[in-house]
Amino acid sequence: MKVYKIADIINNEIVFCAARGWKPGDIAIILTNLREVNDPRPDSAWQVEIEIGKGPTARLMMLHLPQPISVNDSLDSPLFIADNRLIFYRDRLFRPERKPKSAAEREEVILRTKKLVYDEQADLASLKAAVANLEAAIEYTKSGPKRDPIPEDVKLLVWARDGGACVRCGSKKELHFDHIIPVVKGGGNDEANIQILCQPCNLKKADKIATL
């Protein structure tokens, strides 16, 4: 027994899925013939936009429909409405290929309806995760690898080891702590990968791996 999603209920408006071939008027006719429930939910009044007329004189009209859902209806499971021709579940409308003729067929329709909703939610979750990963990758490309500050104890060890002077030219002016293997190439902040360079020597090295 196949089940098709035909519409979403967005802010109480029935918004149809273009691929299912159901026109707004088709649903409007079915739902208009429903008797209004005795104890309606305050938020269950639906409306649907239909086209009146044809050609240049056609105009759109919002048709307000009877309230098909009672406060006594459980919305934890798919709800059959319109003499079992439609199913309402989680703000969506579905239709089975035909009205179920047995309890087993009715159960099958319920299960297939739930699966359609769960598949849709899982697809959306997967899409959000994919977009989040892409945005993180783009941000990483823009900003580059995260640079943690060189610990103070490492700086002291390197300063003492290198004698407080540039290891290339011996200058003691405009000194910088330099990564021998640059961070962008995987270098870390341990003392074995840190050296002292003056600004001119540091600019010459740029992001290259230092060689003596």
Description:
- By secondary structure, this protein is an alpha+beta fold.
- It has 2 domains: 3-128, no CATH class; 152-205, no CATH class.
- Helices cover 32% and strands 21% of the residues.
- It contains 4 helices and 9 strands.
- The protein has helices at residues 24-32, 103-143, 152-162, 199-205, and strands at residues 3-10, 13-16, 47-52, 59-64, 79-81, 86-88, 92-96, 175-179, 194-198.
- It has a 5-stranded antiparallel beta sheet. It has a two-stranded antiparallel sheet with strand order 3-4. A two-stranded antiparallel ribbon has the order 8-9.
- β6 and β7 (92-96) form a beta hairpin.
- The protein is elongated.
- The termini are far apart.
From the structure above, extract its key features.
212 residues, alpha+beta, 2 domains, 5-stranded antiparallel sheet, two-stranded antiparallel ribbon, 4 helices
- What's the mean pLDDT score? 80
Bin the strand percentage: 15-25%
Total DSSP helices: 4
Mind telling me the C-alpha Rg?
34 Å
Order of strands side by side in the largest beta sheet?
Answer: 2-1-7-6-5
Largest sheet: 5 strands, antiparallel
Topology pattern, helix = H, strand = E: EEHEEEEEHHEEH
Proportion of residues in helical segments: 25-40%
Number of strands: 9
User: Which consecutive residue ranges, at least 5 long each, have pLDDT under 50?
Assistant: none
Overall structural class, as computed from helix and strand content, comes to alpha+beta
